[in-house]
Every structure is written in structure tokens, then in C-alpha cells.
Amino acid sequence: MRWTHLLVFVLLLAMATPAMAQAQEAATTGHPQGWWGSFGAGISGLRFACKDCSESQPVYEAPAGVISFGKSIGTKVAFGVEIGAALPTTEDRKVAATTLSGMARWYPSQAPFFLKFGVGLSRARLSLTTDGQTQSAMRNGAGISFGAGYDVRLGRSVAITPLVGWYMNAIGDIGVGDTVRQNVSWNTWSVGVGVTIY
User: Fold this and answer.
1) Hey, what CATH topology would domain 2-197 get?
2) Is 76 exposed, middle or buried (0-12, 13-18, 19+ CB in 10 A)?
3) What residue ranges do the domains of the chain occupy?
4) Residue 23 DSSP symbol
5) Per DSSP, what are the bridge partners of residue 121?
6) Tens-of-pLDDT digits for all 198 residues of the chain?
7) What are phi and psi of 109, to 5 degrees?
8) Residue 193 — φ and ψ, nearest 5°?
9) Using CB atoms within 10 A of its CB, is residue 13 exposed (0-12), middle (13-18) or buried (19+)?
10) pTM metric for this prediction
């Protein structure tokens, strides 16, 4: 499973590399102006923690996706909304960890490099299969996110955007069957490539 996710990420980078090289020669540069939208995919590592969990919790590797849209204000700041998701799966466990955040991008220099910060809602859905029977539970909470990206312009209205992100979420207690975990939280680290349209 781990190698599958790694292969997908390498293929995404391979597709993005020629576009980046062309962009350096022919594309316009600068920050996005007006309304914009972005979508991307990559891989993530997700680690749960809780009050009654063991200290050595595993890190689940999983496919990840992100969709965001917003509007630039001036030349250095853009505000928007972001939806991110990580979907780790094992033989007996499925998790859907999602966040919905109000988000700000900050462009600290003339280069189209940006930092992003977000705060909003999180949701975790956990399904456990035991002896052929599947039980599910869902819980809502709060989350914050940080990240960075670089808009490699392909023209006036399209860019390839490599992204890295970190999401921290807390959902309180969650129970599946007879098992209840207290003060559940999780951290997600993600790396991917997106397409931004202005």
C-alpha cells in the first residue's frame, strides 16, 4: 500500500516537471489576481492520538486531496475556503478525515511562493470490521492548518502548484462498538501537486 501511494506521487511530479520547465521560459509570473480556484492530490501521513491510546501510535499513509477557492486582496494576500481529506485504510479499519477551513494565503515577496493558514471544522468517520461485521462512528470537531505552495504559471490563467501542508484536528470522544476513545486528535502531513485557475 505504501509503495502504491509513493508511485502515485512520483507520477504526479513527473507530469508536473515538464510544465514547470516550460513555465520558466514562457509563462507570465506574479501573484494571482481576482478570483481563483485550485484542486490537487498527493499522499499524506496521518497519526491519531487520544487520552487512553498508547504512546506509540502508527502513522497511516493515505491518498489525500484538497480543493480551495478564494479571492486575492491586493498583491500579497488572498482569502478563501479550503476542503482537505485524507483516507487511510487497513484490513479492518477505514478512516475518512476531512477539514473545512477558512483560509488565507500570504505572498511574502514578488515570487509566487505563498504560505497559507487556516482554521475551521474537522470531521472523522471511523469504520471497524470485526468477525465480518462493520461498525461505524462519526464525530465533528475543530482544526487548524498550515502550508506552503508555489504557483508555477503556465499562462495568464493557469498554474501548476506544488503544495505541502500540515493539519491538526481535535474531535473529542469517539466510540465504535464497545470501544470509546477519549480526547481524540490527529495530525496529517501531506505533499501533492495541484492546478490553480485564475
Assistant:
1) Porin (2.40.160)
2) middle
3) 2-197
4) H
5) 100, 142
6) 454 554 445 444 445 444 444 444 434 445 667 899 999 999 999 888 888 777 778 888 899 999 999 998 888 899 999 999 998 887 777 888 999 999 999 999 877 899 999 999 999 888 877 777 788 888 899 999 999 999 988 887 899 999 999 999 998 888 776 777 788 888 999 999 999 998
7) -145, -175
8) -130, 135
9) middle
10) 0.75
